Amino acid sequence: MHTERDGKSLSGYAMIVVLLALQLTTLFVIVTGPIVFKALAALAAVIVFICWFGLYMVHPNQGKVLQLFGNYKGTERTPGLRWNNPLYSKQAVSLRVRNFESGRLKVNDANGNPIEIAAVIVWRVVDTAEAVFEVDDYENYVSIQSEAALRNLATSYPYEHDEDDHRLTLRGHSSAIAEKLRTEVQDRLGKAGVDVLEARLSHLAYAPEIAQAMLQRQQASAVLAARRLIVQGAVGMVKDAIEQLSTEGVVELDDERKAAMVSNLLVVLCGEHNAQPVLNAGSLY
User: Fold this and answer.
1) Is the CB of residue 58 less than 8 Å from the CB of residue 80?
2) What positions does the domain Band occupy (predicted)?
3) Does residue 158 sit in the same domain as residue 202?
4) What is the pTM of this model?
């Protein structure tokens, strides 16, 4: 397994001065020197000319992976003009932070419901040797493994929970789900020298074929919850009204009249429409 190590290089600016001086010296000897020295100077001029090809540029947040006949010699990360063995091959690897946005994947959640899900993965290369030598194409590897991790996550958790279900859900626990997604993607991409900075769901919805049915289910659940809250509040209001009437001696109510009052108040408080008052001009009996 390859791990990144420093690729020793020289300043390209200093080497320009040295190579230029050597090149001019060899040309001067070729023109003015004896025949024997001219042959040696010509050979030296060719070598100096080849050395010019050892110059290369390293941009900020970039690494150059150096190889000599297939052997890894190190990675140069120092930005600017650098010089190294002209026989080295120099492969550029970006160290910048990058985004990968998956397409909308159609999968089944833990309850078997078809859903659509997508995610955004924020990543960067931290080990250039692993990125270049351990996988064939690290950018393609990131995209495939990220989508595989997203599929596995979607099948491990339900879209939303039922009343008695307290499991993590894709819809209700976005922060926890995002952290689990980041961890799973990191486990898959670690061997490629990639560090996952962030992972977030960018799209989450039921599949179109069941979306309408699930929407009706959500609406029904919301209506039931609202009704339950209304009834609880109405019962408390009726109880307080009866107790206050009795405490202050406004009116004496027997059980039958209390039952009638409770019925009327609940109808008024829990009804969907405004109550229509009915005036009673006589006795209840």
Assistant:
1) yes
2) 53-218
3) yes
4) 0.70
